[in-house]
Structures are given as structure tokens and as C-alpha cells.
Specification:
The protein has about 240 residues and is of the alpha+beta class. The protein has ten helices and five strands, in the order ααββαβααααααββα. It has a domain at about 75-240: Glutaredoxin. A five-stranded mixed sheet has the order 1-3-2-4-5, with helices on both faces. Strand 4 (about 210-215) and strand 5 (about 220-225) form a beta hairpin. The longest helix is centred in the N-terminal third of the chain and has 40 residues, at about 25-65.
Length: about 240
């Protein structure tokens, strides 16, 4: 073992270093660490509270799932005119009719209490993904997201009809938790009963193509020209009925 001589100046510096670490300096370091730890705990607690609030909000939305058939109606049930639309989400003509006729109809007549609009599912066998699309929209309707889901699928029809990525289209209007729930319900087959009910009703009304429309006013139901009508023509007809 080698021993080295230490002069007084070196010894004093060495002693100062020891006091700095073991005395007030160590206490300051410990206090700093304790403060940082508490700040970290508060930050983690804040993240936890935010996550719990978000989860609670999502669970509350899912907990409001409607009993019975999915609600695919829009407008007042006391409206003087009812329009039933049998449609297929993969049908190009249905998309055009929805975007160019039904959307303005919703704004001008449904929202003002003049028309009750009812969607009926009529997926055609020639369309590969139309039935799954109907399942998903029915499942979305069960949690009150029918209108958003319908609009999303028509808006992105060009995309999902190629690869069947319906979830990608719905992700724009549903939260991840809502999308997972809707997908699970759709894949369970529980929505098939409601879809078949609409199809059976369409068959009884001699529906052979989509979109097909039926208008009821003053207790009388009439079939409108199949394939949809322009908004200007429909508006003229509705105004004539409402003026009677």
C-alpha cells in the first residue's frame, strides 16, 4: 500500500468536499429530489385523472345503447309527411341520392318538422360489402350514431368498396372505443334480424332496386320513381302536398 503525504491546503479542500456532500449540500440535494418526485406524482395523478374522465365519458356513451331495433329515423314522428328510403351503402346511385337529395331534404324539411325520414336497409347481393356495412351502421345506430355513420360510409364509398375497409371510414366519426363496440356488435350477427326485417318489408313493397322511395301523406302511401329523384323535383312535390 502506498502512502502519500497531504499538505494542509489539500486537506482543507478535501474536508470541504466531505462537508458539502454530507452536510447542508446533501440535504439540499435530497430536498430537490423530493420536490421532483412530488411533481412527478402530481403529473402522473393528473394524467390518470384525465384518462379516467375520458374512459368514463366513453363508457357513459356506450351505456346509453338503445333497447329494441336500431333507431334509423330522423325528424319528428308527428311530421305530416313520411319518406321511407330503401338503400344499399355500396350502391353508387344511393350515394348520389343521399348527397344531392337527402342531405338538403334533412336541412329544409326534416329539421323543420315537415318530414319524417326513415332509412331501410336493402343490401343487394351484387355488392360484396353492403351487408357488412348495414350491420355496422345498425350497430352505430344502437349508440345514437346512425347519421354520422351513414354519412361517413357514403362519403368514403369509393375507398372502402375496393378493399372492404369499413372500419377505416367509420374511424373518422367514432371514437376508438365506440368503433370497437360497434364492430363487436356487427360481427356478433345481432343486427341481421333488423336488416332482414327491412329486406322483407322491401320485398312486400316490390322493391327491386335501390334507392327506392315511399312517401306517406294524409294516410296514403305512394311509391316514387325508383332510382331516386332530384331534390328540385322532390321539393316541388313536397311543397304541393304541404300546401293542401
Amino acid at each position: 500500500m502506498i502512502c502519500r503525504k497531504t499538505d494542509s491546503k489539500t486537506f482543507l479542500l478535501f474536508l470541504f468536499a466531505i462537508l458539502l456532500v454530507s452536510g447542508p449540500g446533501r440535504a439540499a440535494v435530497a430536498a430537490t429530489r423530493q420536490t421532483a418526485a412530488k411533481a412527478g406524482e402530481r403529473k402522473a395523478g393528473s394524467r390518470s385523472t384525465t384518462a379516467k374522465a375520458s374512459a368514463s365519458k366513453t363508457n357513459k356513451a356506450l351505456a346509453t345503447e338503445q333497447a329494441g331495433p336500431p333507431n334509423k329515423t330522423m325528424g319528428s314522428r308527428s311530421a305530416p309527411i313520411t319518406i321511407e328510403v330503401f338503400s344499399d351503402y355500396q350502391c353508387p346511385a344511393c350515394r348520389v341520392f343521399y348527397q344531392e337529395t337527402l342531405r338538403p331534404l334533412m336541412d329544409d324539411y326534416v329539421a323543420t318538422g315537415k318530414v319524417l325520414l326513415i332509412h331501410r336497409d336493402f343490401p343487394l347481393p351484387i355488392h360484396q360489402y353492403s351487408r357488412q356495412a348495414a350491420r355496422l351502421v345498425n350497430a352505430a345506430a344502437k349508440i345514437g350514431k346512425f347519421e354520422k355513420a351513414e354519412q361517413a360510409l357514403y362519403a368514403r364509398q369509393d375507398s372502402w368498396e375496393k378493399d372492404g375497409n369499413l372500419s377505416g371510414a367509420l374511424a373518422a366519426v367514432l371514437t376508438p372505443a365506440e368503433l370497437a363496440h360497434v364492430t363487436q356488435v356487427a360481427e356478433s350477427g345481432k343486427m341481421d334480424t333488423f336488416i332482414e326485417s327491412d329486406v322483407s318489408l322491401g320485398n312486400s313493397k316490390q322493391v327491386h332496386q335501390t334507392p327506392s322511395l315511399f312517401l306517406t301523406h294524409a294516410g296514403q302511401t305512394d311509391a316514387l320513381p325508383p332510382g331516386g329523384v332530384s331534390y328540385s323535383l322532390l321539393k316541388r312535390y313536397l311543397d304541393q302536398l304541404l300546401a293542401q
